[in-house]
Amino acid sequence: MEPQKFNKYYDALRKEWEKRKHMTFDPLSEEPVFKQHADLLIGSGNVLLANENKTFVVDEYNRKLLRFLLLYFNGQEEAENIYPGKGYKLHKSLIICGGVGVGKTLTMQAFSEYLKMTGNPNAFHNVSVTQMINYYKQHEHLDLYTYNEGGRKGYDGCQPENLCLNDVGVQTSLHFGQDTKQLVMDFFHARTEAYNQYRVKTHVTTNMSPSEIKDYFSNDEYGRLVDRLKFYNIIHMNGESRRK
């Protein structure tokens, strides 16, 4: 769809969803309703890719995952049956893993826009590890990305929100003079506390495999993070790189 035509379509949908923000979740088990949401998600992806003159592709590599995520973020119990035997649950956060360029970050960016547009309480903000490190270099704390406190330090009065930390990788060396892995560990410890008190979720995208994820989190200073992986739906995204 051409950007000009899509913008008109996008604005019309946004106005319609504004009227429905405070309603309960739509029944996505009904295929026409599911298609309406899927079209809106794909449209959000197309907007993100417009500057690259690309479109959001749904194919055999991501179709099942996208269906799961649409049901998951809209609170549909049917989501728990999309991957039989995996034990995925609605109350768990997400770790989307897969090879470089398969579309993990783009998928979560598209869902972020779609969820915000629909007024979904499961909406989340995206932040990359690089952004987090750059913020830490300037402020010497991670409050913005843990408790959403802006420039304030401390815990009182914070209003944490759902987040997705993108590009968590196997790189553990210094990055811009900072220990990347230690900052990621600090981030997850803080977000675990935020979840315990406020029930806000922390999603992740990573190039690591499920086994590498467990190894990565098994060496934290307190030895607790690997145990908390049980609170995540760890989903592998298949396919080849789409960066062509």
Notes on the protein architecture:
It contains eight helices and seven strands, in the order αααβαβααβββαβαβ. The protein has helices spanning 3-18, 31-49, 63-73, 104-117, 129-139, 143-146, 180-198, 210-217; strands spanning 93-98, 125-128, 163-168, 174-175, 178-179, 202-206, 232-237. Strands 2-3-6-1-7 form a five-stranded parallel sheet, sandwiched between helices. It has a two-stranded antiparallel ribbon with strand order 4-5. The chain has one domain (3-237): Rossmann fold, CATH 3.40.50. It is globular, with a radius of gyration of 18 Å. With 244 residues, the chain is α/β, with parallel strands linked by helices. It starts with a helix and ends in a 7-residue tail after the last strand.
Query: Within the CATH hierarchy, at the fold level, what is the topology?
Result: Rossmann fold
Which regions contain 5 or more consecutive residues with pLDDT less than 50? 151-157
Q: Using DSSP, what is the number of strands? A: 7
Let me know the CATH homologous superfamily: P-loop containing nucleotide triphosphate hydrolases
Query: What helical percentage do the residues reach?
Result: 40-55%
CATH class wording = Alpha Beta
